[in-house]
Design a protein that fits this description.
The protein has about 200 residues and is of the alpha/beta class. It has a single domain, classed as Nucleoside Triphosphate Pyrophosphohydrolase (Alpha-Beta Complex), CATH 3.90.79.10. A hairpin with a 2-residue loop joins strand 5 and strand 6. The protein is globular.
Length: about 200
């Protein structure tokens, strides 16, 4: 179940505790051709010993909190916030910290929905990546990024907006990372029916 080679820096016992606490995620896989600048970003993360992200779809009323980074500000593309665990940090600690840094809000994890394996295809070869995807609920705070170096904007969007216009913009972008995020978003909402 836990592949140590695919989640460097994370404790397999912690992963199993997340399943006990938040349910067993569906395992899916995806592959995408990444542009050179995208590959450089992934390679930098891998060089720091991180080949994963923790993504949260945060419910706030009938909408979801989403972020836009400076790299694609003004494009109409938004996505669920995500980030990685620091060495020695638990998955849950990392999720709560990253959501606060990217959105300015406190959240509560509700369900471990997806564990996605991604093959990042670069001109220099394949880079393995994993995304641990959770449903979370908004608890408190203003929608305002703390990490303004990375995050340009925080807002809320409906499921319909994310699945239709935003996913279409992601697919049209030509970015491998957005092809993956479109797949991740679609896969999340195929499993989310509003009941958990």
């Amino acid at each position: 179940m836990f592949d140590r080679t695919m989640l460097t820096g994370l404790d397999p016992r912690d992963y199993l505790q997340m399943i006990e606490k938040y349910g067993k995620p569906d395992r899916l896989s995806f592959a995408a051709d990444f542009l050179d600048f995208e590959c450089e970003l992934v390679q930098r993360s891998a060089a720091k010993g991180r080949n994963h992200d923790i993504t949260c779809f945060i419910r706030k009323g009938s909408e979801f909190i989403v972020i836009q980074k400076h790299d694609y500000a003004g494009t109409g593309i938004y996505r669920a916030p995500s980030g990685g665990a620091y060495p020695g940090e638990s998955i849950e600690e990392a999720a709560l910290r990253e959501m606060y840094e990217e959105t300015g809000t406190e959240v509560k994890l509700k369900e471990f929905v997806l564990d996605l394996s991604l093959n990042v295809r670069c001109s220099s070869g394949l880079i393995p990546w994993r995304s641990l995807v959770f449903l979370a609920d908004y608890v408190a705070g203003e929608l305002n990024p703390i990490d303004t170096y990375e995050i340009a904007e925080v807002t809320t969007m409906t499921r319909k907006q994310l699945l239709e216009e935003v996913n279409e913009l992601m697919k049209q972008s030509g970015w491998g990372g957005f092809a993956y995020r479109a797949f991740l978003t679609k896969s999340f909402f195929e499993r989310y029916d509003g009941s958990f």
